[in-house]
């Protein structure tokens, strides 16, 4: 229009150049600072590396990776190789089917394995530390396995038939397209499904009896499932139940009935989440409110709408359904109640339920893949941050749990597990899991490492890590705070800690640390706080509001600039993340609320704890610019405070940023994590 001012492209370009130059200058400054300070820790680094290698050799190298069983054949992955062994033979005689080194991909690791029903083909996904995207390699098996096809940027994939593979393509951290390809006719590839809503993420799953392949489209609050009939894999997918806001469901199949894990109806609390570790299967994260139960329902395949869903099983009050596995005559459910893991076995033959309490030290479990749903035994592994994975088996015939002997793996005997409940600001009780050495005396003098996450309805990661066991052996106390925003106590636990409730997670964390000190676990001057990714929001917020509670903070790829990030819709995850943090662009109250707790926005001159941050140049999820600016602002505030106060023995914290050229968002190999 006449008189309208046209923005100058020169000014726009100048602004971009200035921004890029500022980013480069900040990065160079931090790299120089890291190079100057890191030699200080050389001797300590050497000692820790040697100890971690020793523990890795003792525990992890001797522990078995999960096995995939097909009749007499057993497939497994170790050290970048995929092996085929006979079930009744020594695994030392196993045949190598694939090696990462043969492809020349020395920085890649095997993420997922899928064997075709007739075992003629094997699909593998390889992922590099420097990328979020994986490459799918299809191999034709035989006396001499050969690479049949390579598909880039693949997220999930499943065999619908002996020679028909469905797969999803990942682009800019999103999965919205499903393709089908056939073998040996490579040229026959077609688009099967496209998701139009940017909030939804698509993945694939095959029912245990291989009757259906499911196309699952999930947002953080809603899901929709389409069925591909594996007997007719070229037919169009059929809808199970149209998406309804707040309704989440997952499908299994048995004898012409769909079994549905769902939030539908009252009472119901269930939610499906893709976790960081989807090597052999997609984990399900199920939730239960304190006064409501999860639900397993069923419906005929021909009439699968929710009006036809019938209740099969609902766990007891205050029990969270973590995962389940369907077999021909039974269903196994993994449950969590008050921090303890349970195994429930539903018999469809006798119409009965048996409940088995698992060892008290167990915090995490991993189901082994059982492609044959008629098997008589279910295998799984249990672990904790300080207990290496231990293999168990449940026998349907014997109706009992069997602990599998693992060769030469020492048993952890000197670690004590304690579970506490901290009363938060609104009187909500927040669980804490504590580990310490049984032989430690004067626990109030011992160093304490506190862990927190509290976002996306995901449980705090409590899988085995060599460094956690090392700390226990050296007298440290480890505490895991299961604050609101996470998924430890159900869907309402997540809802009570997201969007306009995010401050509740901060109140929970404060209450947890204060209780730990009150009951005699360490004291503020010996306490450190650790968090990764979105856990950096609560850790960084506590650092601003209660810096006197901790002496040090360690953050890995932390999300510390919530407000500015959520204002940038051009970033790949911003629209999807609005269900977790809110939309500050359209809601002024939301903007003010985020500003009230955002770590970057609330830095002020005061006595801060020392801080070590690890970040990655290639991180697509947490922009490096936000971390660089956070560190600069935090360091300036700490120095301003020190210059204003002239107290005797005034303490200036170390604030260190290690920007790593390799690695992606909190996802690394053993070698990379060892260096870190």
From TrEMBL:
GO MF terms held by the record: serine-type endopeptidase activity
Occurrences of domain Peptidase S9 prolyl oligopeptidase catalytic (ranges): 463-641
Function: Serine peptidase whose precise substrate specificity remains unclear. Does not cleave peptides after a arginine or lysine residue. Regulates trans-Golgi network morphology and sorting by regulating the membrane binding of the AP-1 complex. May play a role in the regulation of synaptic vesicle exocytosis.
Enzyme Commission designation: 3.4.21.-
Family the UniProt entry places it in: Belongs to the peptidase S9A family.
Domain Peptidase S9A N-terminal stretches: 35-400
Originating species: Loxia curvirostra (Red crossbill)
Name of the coding gene: Prepl
Name of protein: Prolyl endopeptidase
Superkingdom classification of source: Eukaryota
Gene Ontology biological-process entries: proteolysis
PANTHER family per UniProt: PROLYL ENDOPEPTIDASE-LIKE (PTHR11757:SF19), PROTEASE FAMILY S9A OLIGOPEPTIDASE (PTHR11757)
